[in-house]
Amino acid sequence: MLELINVSYNAQSESGEKEILKDISLKFEEGFIAITGPNGGGKSTLAKIIAGIITPTSGKILLDGEDITALSVTERAKRGISFAFQQPVRFKGITVKDLITLACGKEITVAEACDYLSQVGLCARDYIDREVNASLSGGELKRIEIATVLARSTKVSLFDEPEAGIDLWSFNNLINVFEKMHSKLGGSIIIISHQEKILNIADKVAVLVGGKLEAFGAKSDILPELLNATSAACSVLTNGLEGQK
Amino acid sequence: MNDTEKQLLKIIADMDGVPNGAYNIRSNGALLDRKTTPNVDIKTKTDKPGIDIIIRPNTKGEVIHIPVVINETGLSDTVYNDFIIGDNADVIIMAGCGIHNCGDNESRHDGVHSFFVGKNARVKYIERHYGEGDGVGKNVMNPTTVVNIGENGYMEMETTQIKGIDDTVRVTNATVADGGTLVIKEKIMTHKNQVAKTDFTVNLIGKNSGANVISRSVAKDDSFQSFKSNINGNNLCNGHTECDAIIMDNARVEAIPEICANHIDASLIHEAAIGKIAGEQLIKLMTLGLTEQEAEQEIINGFLK
Hints:
Number of domains of chain A: 1
Order of helices and strands of chain A: EEEHEEHEHHHHEHEHEEHH
Helix content of chain A: 40-55%
Largest sheet of chain B: 10 strands, mixed
Order of helices and strands of chain B: HEEEEEEEEEEEEEEEEEEEEHH
CATH architecture of chain A: 3-Layer(aba) Sandwich
Number of strands of chain A: 10
Distance between the termini of chain A: 34 Å
Shape of chain A: globular
CATH class of chain A: Alpha Beta
Oligomer: heterodimer
Radius of gyration of chain B: 20 Å
Strand order of the largest sheet of chain A: 6-7-8-3-9-10
Number of strands of chain B: 20
């Protein structure tokens, strides 16, 4: 189980120090957890703190009871944390097969690599030897990024806005991918998302506004409140701002 | 053939034993072994060191190996090799030079290779340069390649400097006739205080001729690389030159792409990019469980693949 205890993060800006995350405590039990909230609320920062890309200013991160706050990105990955970037990285010369092989951590057959690609809706044979470079569209890169996390099959899988840049048809498939992951992988699947359809398949929903955890609980408790408003995001934002007053 | 020679031949020419097809192996400045085939003749030059490789018209699918190895320290070897590729032929030529220098003197190989690619002929030319040895003597290679591509001819030149070459100046001069195409793919990695300079000049003189010159390089430690590429478009033609380099440590890289359109229908493009490995590339691979050093190596391997 992944646990955040009183995690805060301050970033340096031109106007001085800015509080990005404020005293976040969260337990990610096994299951599907969605993190939502308005833009700029600190969701991506939280994901980077879990992956080890950003070190929190204060607070602790525990994985199965072990304090991993001081561990590097690599050490956390080895302990079972996977992270799909919001904006996937491009590599000149590294092929899709290379990247999926690295994600698996062992040599895999073309058929195995193809299987992961098929799961994210890519016609595998067309992609397997292509370079992960600018010749791929944003949506294609995004799906390959998700495939690398599938290939890792770890106990914590973290996705930062997986739906961004994916077309409507693929989006429905993406929902299926996450539903399958849920039953197959076990562990904690944490998805940062603005999409109702993704929130709908979550067990729990966390709402992050202005760097603070505004709400966290069962989907059945959180989601109706979010959706009842004319605009969920506006409602969350309004509540959040009111909460800060 | 001793073990060092065998090992060098494997690295530079993928040779594991005697290859099928024609070959000419030169070791320490002298002929070590040669084989010809009915379609591929190899003759020793009489006026200067070197050989003529004559490929008969319509020869298809033959692979010709022309490697050079040096394992004597202080040896300086210059050869002039001419490749005459007959009309309609389609062949692969694997050349390359490996130096094993355990002494304190400079070992040097300067190869001047001239290609005459016939009408409608296709040739893939693979050239690998590699150096090793524990001594302080430098490994130096200065290849010069002269290319003449005939009507509708095609030549792909893949040159790789694998490692261990302390000093190199690589000069290529090419002329492409009507409908002809030249593709150059260069890969270089330099370490320590190594210096690598490349200088390509391509003259597109024929109608519908084309050239694509692509260089990818990695410069580490205190090494220095210079890439110069000059494409002259003298007719209706397409030319593209691209230099992509990764710099690390205290290394320096300069790229001087030059294109010159001397004809209204010449279409020429140059691109050059030099930079260190992007931090987000390292982080992505680290999230897959690689250490920073492993991530760096994977990025370099992929880049130079």
